[in-house]
Amino acid sequence: MTRDDFARDDLITVTITPPATAPARRCQAAQEGESKKRERVPKGISLMALAREHGGARPSPIVAARVNNELRELTYQLDEDASVEFLDLETEDGMRIYQRSLVSLLVMAAREILAGCRVSVEHSLGNGLYGEIYWERPVTEKDIENIEARMKEIVKRDVPFAKRTIPKEEAVALFERDGQHDKVRLLKYRKAPTVNIYTCDWFSDYSYGYMVPSTGYLRLFRLRFYLPGFILEFPSRSDPTRIPEYVEQGKLASVFFEAERWGQVLNVSDVASLNDIVSQGNIGDIIRVAEAFHEKKIAKIADLITENKDRLRLILIAGPSSSGKTTFAQRLAVQLRVNGLKPVSISLDDYFVDREHTPRDEAGNYDFEALEAIDLKLFNEHLARLIQGEEVELPAFNFLKGKRESSGRRLRIRPDQPIIIEGIHGLNDRLTLSIPKSRKFKIYVSALTQLNIDDHNRIPTTDVRLLRRIVRDSQFRSHNALETIRLWPSVRKGEEKNIFPFQEEADVMFNSALAYELAVLKKYAEPLLEQIDRSVPEYSEAKRLLKFLDYFLEVDPKDVPANSLLREFIGGSCFV
Q1: Side-chain half-sphere CA neighbours of 426 within 13 A
Q2: Are 443 and 509 a contacting pair, CB within 8 Å?
Q3: Domain 3-88 in this protein, CATH class
């Protein structure tokens, strides 16, 4: 039967958009005439069938779509006129779906090879996910090789991921029988009366989000033995056709290990355990201990700097957006003063080049995050003179005029006055090329949460930072959640280029995540996200974040101390 055989009432109009890619590629596509297509298609057609017909030849598979700005699986059927944007692995949502499906494939294969084992996906590491397998004996490299081989067999069989909606009580009983007690504890706090369960062959799982239609979509992955667990590697969004070469990140792995140890001390490893503490009225104790962890770590960093005060004259603090760098820098300064030092701060913003000399990004916009947006020659000249005891006049940048001006502020520092500089390029030695490495102390700050939803569904550190930024932008920058979410991809792109490649260059790493913070942010973020309606593409992201926050019981911020890094985002900080 052809499309012409359908009656007019059996056809619907669909506006099809190819997968969104980088800004430069979108511009190129527009110039080459690649645009939305309007098609008349049979009512009830699945997105999978539509993708086969209109997806075109792509370097990575289409794994989902946005239908009228709402995220949908490929099994979704269209029954009315709609706009459809296909999503492949070059998109954030597409990659999330691919990774989530890979984890389910891994758990299934591991339980087939090591009967009765428990798989826990802990956190991201490099271009992959680190996890551990708990069994009757320690897992070996050969075990991991066997699991990878089984995963490939299941992919070759192209087994469907079948979704079904069942009552919450039935889901609890299912996971109780299967020994997935983490999900039993999580579902205890679920408000909705039903649960979506995915079944692949014999294996059933609960996934925070959508899945690919079948295992045949998951052809590109690598499973690596990483004592005492594994790393599940996958392609990058920038090149979804291959697995990039693994780069060891020992310092970052150590910070995650420390975060997990803190979680064990607090007895908070997943959302259910945090909710248990909240429901029992004991969250105040968790807040105080978590904040004490931070204070102790900052004090240790200050002690390390003080022990080398004759050598270290420059303290550089860098980290991705909303990692809490500003409050960290202020708390570090307090601890340094406790140790008898008198640190001074210099703002990198005042060393911007004049607007007409600012480099532009690939879309033609001013790139204020580029290293070349800073007058490196003048900045390094001032640093060298200050460290040698000379007096300099610091500049001031007039953002309204786009010009650097004279500030009239003169500065001379003493040997007991280290210079603190906070900025995205702090770990890049090109920023301070004139200062020997031995005279610099570099600190990387990021929110590396150890908290997971359950064993198989982790909480990306990116989501924590995005929620922080949504709340902060609303509180202090007059930006609504829509504007923040819309800007976030370009923020992430800048981090990938200017921060993450240099994170292992840090002398120390500070984890600014707080085990309880998402329960506090929930109160602030939910009403902001609810303002985003389905008329805009950002609706699907707002809906995802709202679903994520729904797992948490809300916590009143009254017990959060005034010097907490969290206060930088929710307000009430003593450092304003």
Answers
A1: 30
A2: yes
A3: alpha beta
Three-class DSSP category at 195: strand
pLDDT digits (tens, 9 = 90+) for 396-420: 999 889 999 988 899 999 999 999 9
Q: What is the dihedral of CA 252, 464, 480, 576, to 10 degrees?
A: -70
Distance CA 216, CA 61 (A): 11
Identical topology for domains 3-88 and 94-251: no
Q: Where are the domains positioned within the chain?
A: 3-88, 94-251, 252-343+418-570
Q: Is the bond preceding 415 in cis, omega lying within 30 degrees of 0?
A: no
What does the block give as tokens for 74? 């490929």
What gap in Å lies between CA 58 and CA 227, rounded to an integer? 36
Helices (H) and strands (E) in the chain, counts: 16, 19
Decide: pTM greater than 0.85: yes
Which residue carries 């609303």 as its tokens? 474
CATH number of 94-251: 3.30.980.10
Residues 270-277 have a mean pLDDT of 96
User: Token digits for 427?
Assistant: 């770990």
Residue 566 pLDDT greater than 70, yes or no:
yes
Question: Residue 360 — φ and ψ, nearest 5°?
Answer: -115, 150
Q: How far apart are the first and last CA of the chain?
A: 69
Residue among 214, 220, 211, 216 at smallest CA distance from 241: 220
